[in-house]
Design a protein that fits this description.
single chain, about 130 residues, mainly alpha, about 0% strand, globular, EF-hand domain-containing protein, KIC/PBP1/KRP1, EF-hand-dom_pair
C-alpha cells in the first residue's frame, strides 16, 4: 500500500484580529459609539447616493483606510456581508449592524443582554399565572 503524499503547501499563520470595538464602546458609551460609526460610514459612502457602494468602498478603502491591496472579490464580499436588502450597497443601518456583527465580544454581550431581557419578561409572565 502506498503512503499518502505529504502536503508541500507552505503554512501561513492565521492573521491576528484585535477587537477594539468593546473598548471603544466602553469609552464612548452607546451613543458615542453610534456617532463614530456614522462618521465612519460617511467616510466610506458615495456622496451622491448616500450609501456605501462597491466603487466608493474600493476607492475609500485604499485612500481612507489604507487597504489598497483588497481585490475586487474582497470588496464585493464586504458589501455582500452586510447588504440585507440586497440592493448592492450598504445603507447606514446595514453598515452599523455589520460593524457590530464583526465584533465577537459585542455580539456575545448583546446576546447576554437580550437573553436576560427575555428571561425577565417571560419569567415574570409565567410566575403571574
Amino acid at each position: 500500500m502506498a503512503s499518502p503524499k505529504s502536503s508541500t503547501r507552505p503554512t501561513h499563520p492565521e492573521p491576528t484580529f484585535h477587537d477594539f470595538f468593546p473598548a471603544m464602546a466602553g469609552k464612548l458609551g452607546g451613543e458615542g459609539l453610534i456617532d463614530e460609526l456614522c462618521k465612519g460610514f460617511e467616510l466610506l459612502m458615495d456622496r451622491d447616493r448616500g450609501v456605501i457602494t462597491f466603487e466608493s468602498l474600493r476607492r475609500n478603502a485604499s485612500a481612507v483606510l489604507g487597504l489598497g491591496d483588497l481585490t475586487d472579490d474582497d470588496v464585493r464580499c464586504m458589501i455582500n456581508e452586510g447588504d440585507f436588502d440586497r440592493d448592492g450597497a450598504l445603507n447606514q443601518m446595514e453598515f452599523c449592524v455589520l460593524m457590530f456583527r464583526l465584533s465577537p465580544e459585542l455580539m456575545e454581550a448583546s446576546r447576554c443582554v437580550v437573553t436576560e431581557a427575555i428571561e425577565e419578561e417571560f419569567g415574570d409572565r409565567t410566575h403571574r399565572r
